[in-house]
Amino acid sequence: MSTTTRGETVRTVPPANPAVDTADVFALLERGRALSTPVLRAAVGRLAPSMDTVAAYHFGWIDAEGRPADGDGGKAVRPALALLSAEAAGAPAETGVPGAVAVELVHNFSLLHDDLMDGDEQRRHRDTVWKLHGPAQAILVGDALFALANEILLEIGTVEAGRATRRLTTASRKLIDGQAQDISFEHRERVTVEECLEMEGNKTGALLACAVSIGAVLGGADDRTADVLESFGHHLGLAFQAVDDLLGIWGDPEATGKQTWSDLRQRKKSLPVVAALAAGGPASRQLAELLAADAKSHDFASFSEEEFATRAALIEEAGGREWTSQEARRQHTVAIEALSGVDMPERVRAQLTALADFVVVRKR
């Protein structure tokens, strides 16, 4: 089965069965978490009080009262990719640990700031840092994590560490560009699909691309190899974000830790919305009229659940949900094809493929 998207014929079948089973994927994620967390904790421990405590709360290591906790620290996809990246270059997985930690620090810097900018009060079923400790602490701790990321790499003192830092800073700048684009879209009636993909390539794709190349760079890989791995990560990031966009509208709050219709409440021009508006037809036009009226309202608190449900139904009727699902699969396919450009152990190739499969078929 196939469909036409932006002039391209795209297969609509799901991705192939993972080369590594689900248990092995979770083992890869756990390995990334186990190897990177002690170094991450040590890095956070360098922060001045009370920033270290606030950061520990954000990472789920303590609860709101400061007691030790075993909170949900996320899926740890980026650390897993950084370790596999080192192995793709023929180095031990441990070579990628500083890169894994640096990427996680930048990722969490972005989460702290994003939660504040988006007004999100919940992350992983707990109050966000700005909600619990105030906006100033969220900004300061985020800035501190960003500085720590570069410190962790530069203190290695090797040529490879300098190359890795350059890639991380470039990815960080693109991430910030993407966040700025995302915010600007909220105040526009129309955003093109191409603009949305560019924004998501910056906001999500850039850091995943860095994660899947930084370990290889630390392991001595040349720039061509790192660039090919970045291409894999970039397209995987677009697939990852497409799935997140689906979850942002139709995700189960019990699984996402966010409110129902989360992205609609924040007026986000995510892929399903943009694709639905570009589709044409009665549902698309009705959705455009509603969103134009919404843009003039400053109080979404008065909206009922039924009103958000209506908008979600129109997005689906106009084809935005299906288009985004297919785009996730398309980006997944392009990512996997990129791996053919790197000579690496077949075991590592299979594991990278399995992680890519996991990203695209996450519950949505």
TrEMBL record:
This is Polyprenyl synthetase family protein. Gene3D superfamilies: Farnesyl Diphosphate Synthase. It comes from the Bacteria. The lineage of its organism: Bacteria, Bacillati, Actinomycetota, Actinomycetes, Kitasatosporales. Keywords: Magnesium, Metal-binding, Transferase. It comes from Streptomyces niveus (Streptomyces spheroides). CDD domains: Trans_IPPS_HT (cd00685). PROSITE patterns: POLYPRENYL_SYNTHASE_1. Belongs to the FPP/GGPP synthase family. InterPro entries: Isoprenoid_synthase_dom_sf, Polyprenyl_synt, Polyprenyl_synt_CS. PANTHER family: (2E,6E)-FARNESYL DIPHOSPHATE SYNTHASE, GERANYLGERANYL PYROPHOSPHATE SYNTHASE.
